[in-house]
Specification:
The protein is α+β, with helices and mostly antiparallel strands. It is built from 1 helix and 11 strands. Strands 1, 2, 3, 5, 8 and 11 form a 6-stranded mixed β-sheet that branches. A hairpin with a 6-residue loop joins strand 6 and strand 7. The structure holds dinuclear copper ion.
């Protein structure tokens, strides 16, 4: 008996299964699974973003890593904590193999804080345990993270991107002090001091 179907996928197999129908059924099943997985991942992003201020990196700002020490925002005299006119704080740091400059940043509790970081050499990481601060520091780019500390005390900030032999020794500190102990100088600057 001659087969009536030109397309082999439409031709029933000996057990009666039509391949085309079977393919359509399994494709639909995988499609539903994929949409479900994507929905769960999107929900995780939205929920952590809304409840813990954990956001995917979004600040795209470039800087020339070979000249940033010569002028502009990241010259040595401009690093550390500065008070903005609106009362918020900006902490600027440069990551180099194998240190953060400055090695300690003083900030006030219950105050909006903006970290701005860049690197002169290779990719470093910047992490403050127990907070939403966790970013890569990439040469050529400025990393910016917003946070607000709810507790006082010293936080260790380790470099968490492997950056060379000294990676494990690369860390700095954030000193969060009560607002009454945060006394910036006339220029609005504060540092950890002795
Ligand atoms: Cu810098 Cu690891």
């Amino acid at each position: 008996m001659a087969d009536t179907h030109q397309d082999p996928l439409q031709r029933p197999l000996p057990d009666g299964i039509v391949p085309a129908a079977e393919v359509a059924r399994t494709e639909k099943r995988w499609l539903v699974l994929m949409v479900a997985m994507l929905s769960v991942m999107m929900a995780v992003v939205v929920v952590t973003g809304a409840t813990n201020a954990i956001h995917p990196p979004s600040n795209v700002e470039t800087i020339d890593p070979t000249t940033l020490h010569l002028g502009g925002e990241f010259v040595e005299s401009n690093l550390g904590t500065a008070r903005e006119p609106d009362g918020s704080l900006t902490a600027r740091l440069v990551a180099v193999q194998y240190a953060f400059v400055p090695g300690c940043v003083k900030l006030a509790v219950d105050t909006p804080v903006k970290f701005r970081l860049t690197s002169t050499d290779t990719v470093h990481g910047f992490l403050l345990p127990g907070t939403n601060v966790n970013t890569m520091v990439i040469p050529g780019y400025v990393a910016q993270v917003h946070t607000r500390f709810t507790r006082t005390g010293d936080l260790l900030m380790p470099c968490h991107e492997f950056c060379g032999l000294g990676h494990s020794q690369m860390y700095a500190r954030v000193r969060v002090v009560p607002q009454s102990e945060f006394r910036p100088d006339a220029q609005g600057r504060a540092n950890c001091g002795p």
